[in-house]
Amino acid sequence: MKDTTNILIAAVGGQGALLASKILGAFATARGDDVKMSEIHGMAQRGGSVVTHVRFGEKVFSPTIEQGSADVLLAFEMLEAARHAAMLKPGGTVIVNTQTIAPLPVLTNEMPYPADIIGNLKKMNLRVWHTDALDLARRAGHVKTVNTVLIGMYARMTGDPAESWLKVLAENLPPKLYKVNQAAFTAGYNLSPPWTEQE
Question: Is 196 inside a domain boundary?
Fold first, then answer.
C-alpha cells in the first residue's frame, strides 16, 4: 500500500492557510489519492494560529496527524514553525517563511519574540528550508500570495511538474486571481532546496 503523506500547515489568521490546504488536497485528489483534511482555528481573526492537517495516500483513515509523524511542516511565519516543529517525524522537512508576526504577548512586552528560531530548528534532526516568502509574494504582485509561494517550494521539493500544479491552481482560483498566484507559485518553484547539493 502506498504510504500516506502527512502535511501540517501552520499560519497566522489571514495568511491563506485554508486555501493552501485546499490546493494541496485538490492536487492529491487529481492524482488519484484518498485525501483527508482537518482544520484547527485559533483566534484567527485576531492574528491567532490556524493549523491545517492534510493527509493523502492510497487509503487514509483519519484526518488528523499524530504528533511526531508529519512529513512536512509548511510554516507561514517563524514562530508558527517553532510552535509546531514537534509534530514532524525525525528527519522531516520544515519549509519556513522567515516573516515574523508578533503575537499579543510580544506586542504587550509580556515576553520576547524567540531568538534564532531557524538555528534551533536545524538542531532538531529536521531538513530546514527557509526563505523570505513575503518578499517573493510582493515581487510576484501581492503580499497575500505567501501561501502560493510556499506551495511552489513544496512542489519543487517533491519534483512534481509545475504544469500539474498550475492546472490545479487554475481550477481552484477565480480567474482574476490566477495570474498573480501563478507568478507566486513560480517564484517558489524556482528556488532550489538547500539540501539538494548534498544528496
Answer: no
Domain membership flag for residue 197: no
Q: Is this structure's pTM higher than 0.85? A: yes
In this structure, the chain runs to a length of: 199
Q: What per-residue confidence (pLDDT) applies to 44?
A: 45
Cell of 196: 539538494
Q: Indicate the helix (H) or strand (E) that contains 161.
A: none
Say which amino acid occupies 26. Answer: A
Instruction: Give the per-residue SS3 of 129-150.
Output: EEECHHHHHHHHCCHHHHHHHH
CATH number at 127 reads 3.40.920.10
Domain with 162, as residue range(s), is 5-101+115-189
Helix, strand or coil for residue 166? helix
Q: Which residues contact 115 (CB under 8 A, 6 or more apart)?
A: none
Instruction: Give ∠ CA 153-155-158 in degrees, rounded to 5.
Output: 110
Cell digits for 192? 532550489
Q: How many domains does the chain have?
A: 1
d(C-alpha 60, C-alpha 46), whole Å: 33
59 lies in some domain: yes
Q: Which position has the grid cell 509548511?
A: 74
Q: What is the pLDDT of residues 58-90, one digit of tens each?
A: 999 999 999 999 999 999 999 999 999 999 999
